[in-house]
Amino acid sequence: MKKENIEEVIKILSETYPEAKCALNFNSPYELLVSTILSAQCTDVRVNQVTEELYKEYNTPEKVISLTEEELGEKIRSCGFYKNKSKNILGATRTILKEHNGEVPNTMEELIKLPGVGRKTANVVLSNAFGVPAIAVDTHVFRVSNRLGISKGNTPDAVEKGLMENIPRDMWSDTHHYLIWHGRQICKARRPNCDNCPVAPYCEFFNNLVEEKK
DNA sequence: CTCCCGATAT
DNA sequence: ATATCAGGAG
């Protein structure tokens, strides 16, 4: 898609979803890190439900590290992948305590060294906890970017690279949230609601549908 | 590429 | 019944 059209798409999405922001509830970088690890293949609603209870007692590295893998796993069970997530949260917490003086690191390089933390999770933490411009490519951003044609790629890394090239740095974090909101409300995985999509005129996916019907 | 995995929408 | 949900590791 042409750069001027990409800017127009972002403008329309910003007007459509002015309230778009991080959907995960957190009160510290550490809470956001844990919530984001939990959010893999799980709805943010479920994560918030689990963490509201979890963070009452266990909201710091020092407190979480007192739990066994089985104990933590049981508390986060309903988020799915609970054995991996429990092991990763405890592993990441251990590293934060040993190597980072109990503070969540604020660089991509250090974040992705933590177990269970890849580029997507690292970008969420950088953007929402530390105010660093970043575009986390999750399932929604990946799907919506490819459909619209604002950044096409076979992997999240490729889509992230394209988005960073096509979007002004100071719009990265906001755009990331617009794309997620749009993916949830209109450009859904199963039955995208193109009839009510404000950016359909610019969308490659929609325009291809129109072509096929001719 | 496969595996991890429970909850919900369709 | 099955696809999908703020992915990451082996």
From TrEMBL:
Keywords, comma-separated and alphabetical: 4Fe-4S, DNA damage, DNA repair, DNA-binding, Endonuclease, Glycosidase, Hydrolase, Iron, Iron-sulfur, Lyase, Metal-binding, Nuclease
Record's keyword annotation contains Hydrolase: yes
Superkingdom of origin organism: Bacteria
MF terms (GO), sorted A to Z: endonuclease activity
SMART domains given in the database record: ENDO3c, FES
Residues annotated to bind [4Fe-4S] cluster: 187, 194, 197, 203
Domain HhH-GPD: from-to ranges: 38-185
Cofactor binding mode and count: Binds 1 [4Fe-4S] cluster.
Catalytic reaction equation(s): 2'-deoxyribonucleotide-(2'-deoxyribose 5'-phosphate)-2'-deoxyribonucleotide-DNA = a 3'-end 2'-deoxyribonucleotide-(2,3-dehydro-2,3-deoxyribose 5'-phosphate)-DNA + a 5'-end 5'-phospho-2'-deoxyribonucleoside-DNA + H(+)
HAMAP family, sorted: Nth
Designated name of the protein: Endonuclease III
Name of the encoding gene: nth
